[in-house]
């Protein structure tokens, strides 16, 4: 997509606005499948938490993707979008046994990450196939909030607890059909990831009826020009060779699974917002936009870097701006960024807005969440309406009768 297209979409649908390029999602999906074309059985399960709009799920389903879900609601969204139950894996953390049983009853692949639920589920449902999430104690992610494979992580069953795990499996006679790990997002060091994979291979040898090994995901995408990213082609060559060797050792062809989320949709997303005020202080020039961390929280939550472009004045001279939002507390998208000269009314474009952006949007300050648009085959398709005041009140119950002033008694 180009700036002209994006500007036209703000004229058509208003701002702030999320836009997703279907062609980019498709090309990222093909890039990953091509990197692992040497694996006889490859399964990519799109991580729905990255961007869960039902139309995006339908697009991924049409490409042949499976679905990685972390809540029963995401499971139901996946089924609504046309995914077959057997192509959905349910990998929650810290949820109740009842939620896991509900997912299992829908026919999806259950993935359990703690010994307590494993024992309870195995005792009640020994015939239902279960995948086990292992914590390899390898930190391959970036920011500590998105690194989930380290020793202090709440995710997965520790590799040091394998004897206990095996005792539960033996006593319940449950069916373990998959082994899973996820080290974290923004993987840069392929050798670290491959080291964690060896721990998973070693663990897999304890189970004789596996159908798949799931290596999670976390492939880093570039957030600015010249930014480093995961070399998926190199990873594909090295892991393919090792995986195929392991399958021969194991004695059967297994499926190699991944759960890409950010990798598939991050670069496909654009967030567009209008500049309300350009404010000069003694030390800073602020560009205040008609949005805030209620729409895009990642810079404030993770310190994430989203490239910001003035698509209304792409050839203007560059100046330094701090781009901020309208939330009544610290609400900064980027400090001292070099951006083409900004005027009030200009449209700013935030890149890499496809993953973990709208899905974490809220109604904080009683603001409306923006609309979402899918750019598909050169045409714009509205896939979520902009919220209204009625949406803010939708599930609220107004008990106004409790606070009506009492009638004054008449004095005779």
Automatic annotation (TrEMBL):
Q: Which UniProt keywords apply?
A: Amino-acid biosynthesis, Decarboxylase, Lyase, Lysine biosynthesis, Pyridoxal phosphate
What Enzyme Commission number(s) appear in the record?
4.1.1.20
Q: Which PROSITE patterns match?
A: ODR_DC_2_1
**Chain positions recorded as substrate binding sites:** 298, 302, 329, 356
Q: Which organism is it from?
A: Flagellimonas oceani
One GO BP on record is:
lysine biosynthetic process via diaminopimelate
> Which residue numbers delimit the Orn/DAP/Arg decarboxylase 2 N-terminal domain?
23-266
The pathway that the record names for this protein is: Amino-acid biosynthesis; L-lysine biosynthesis via DAP pathway; L-lysine from DL-2,6-diaminopimelate: step 1/1
Major enzyme class: lyase
Binding-site positions, pyridoxal 5'-phosphate: 218, 356
Gene Ontology molecular-function annotations: diaminopimelate decarboxylase activity; pyridoxal phosphate binding
Q: What is this protein called?
A: Diaminopimelate decarboxylase
Gene3D superfamilies hit by this protein: Alanine racemase (3.20.20.10), Lyase, Ornithine Decarboxylase, Chain A, domain 1 (2.40.37.10)
The answer to whether keyword Lyase applies is: yes
Show the coiled coil region(s).
none
InterPro entries from the UniProt entry: Ala_racemase/Decarboxylase_C (IPR009006), DAP_deCOOHase_LysA (IPR002986), De-COase2_C (IPR022643), De-COase2_N (IPR022644), De-COase2_pyr-phos_BS (IPR022653), Orn/DAP/Arg_de-COase (IPR000183), PLP-binding_barrel (IPR029066)
N6-(pyridoxal phosphate)lysine: residues bearing it: 49
Claim: Membrane is one of the keywords in the record? no
Similarity-based family:
Belongs to the Orn/Lys/Arg decarboxylase class-II family. LysA subfamily.
The cofactors named for this UniProt entry are: pyridoxal 5'-phosphate
NCBIfam families per UniProt: lysA
Quaternary structure note = Homodimer.
Quote the catalytic activity from the record: meso-2,6-diaminopimelate + H(+) = L-lysine + CO2
Q: Which residues form the active site?
A: 328 (proton donor)
Which part of the chain is the Orn/DAP/Arg decarboxylase 2 C-terminal domain?
Answer: 18-354
């Amino acid at each position: 997509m180009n700036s002209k297209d994006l500007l036209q979409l703000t004229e058509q649908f208003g701002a702030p606005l999320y836009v997703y390029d279907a062609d980019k999602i498709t090309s990222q999906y093909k890039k990953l499948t091509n990197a692992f074309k040497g694996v006889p059985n490859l399964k990519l399960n799109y991580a729905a938490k990255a961007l869960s709009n039902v139309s995006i799920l339908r697009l991924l389903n049409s490409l042949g993707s499976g679905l990685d879900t972390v809540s029963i609601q995401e499971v139901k969204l996946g089924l609504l979008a046309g995914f077959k139950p057997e192509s959905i894996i349910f990998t929650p953390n810290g949820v109740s046994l009842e939620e896991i049983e509900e997912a299992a009853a829908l026919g999806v692949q259950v993935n359990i990450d703690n010994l307590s639920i494993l024992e309870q589920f195995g005792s009640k449902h020994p015939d239902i196939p279960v995948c086990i999430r292992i914590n390899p104690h390898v930190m391959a992610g970036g920011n500590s909030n998105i690194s989930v494979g380290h020793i202090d992580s709440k995710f997965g069953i520790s590799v040091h607890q394998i004897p206990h795990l095996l005792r539960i499996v033996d006593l319940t006679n449950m069916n373990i059909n998959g082994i899973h790990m996820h080290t974290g997002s923004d993987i840069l060091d392929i050798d670290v990831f491959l080291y964690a994979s060896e721990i998973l291979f070693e663990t897999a040898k304890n189970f004789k009826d596996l159908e798949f090994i799931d290596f999670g995901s976390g492939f880093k995408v570039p957030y600015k020009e010249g930014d480093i990213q995961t070399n998926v082609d190199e990873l594909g060559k090295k892991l393919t060779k090792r995986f195929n060797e392991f399958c021969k050792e194991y004695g059967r062809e297994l499926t190699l699974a991944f759960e890409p989320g950010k990798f598939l949709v991050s670069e496909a997303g654009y967030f567009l917002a209008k500049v309300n005020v350009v404010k000069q202080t003694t030390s800073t020039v602020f560009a205040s936009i008609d949005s805030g961390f209620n729409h895009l929280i990642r810079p404030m939550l993770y310190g994430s870097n989203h490239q910001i472009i003035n698509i209304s004045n792409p050839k203007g001279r560059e100046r330094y701006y701090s781009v901020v939002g309208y939330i009544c507390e610290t609400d900064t998208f980027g400090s001292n960024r070099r951006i083409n000269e900004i005027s009030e009314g200009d449209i700013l474009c935030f890149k890499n807005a496809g993953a973990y952006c709208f899905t974490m949007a809220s109604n904080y300050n009683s603001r409306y969440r923006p609309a979402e648009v899918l750019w598909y085959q050169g045409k714009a398709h509205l896939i979520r309406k902009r919220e209204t005041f009625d949406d803010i009140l939708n599930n609220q119950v107004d008990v106004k009768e409790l606070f009506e002033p009492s009638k004054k008694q008449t004095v005779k």
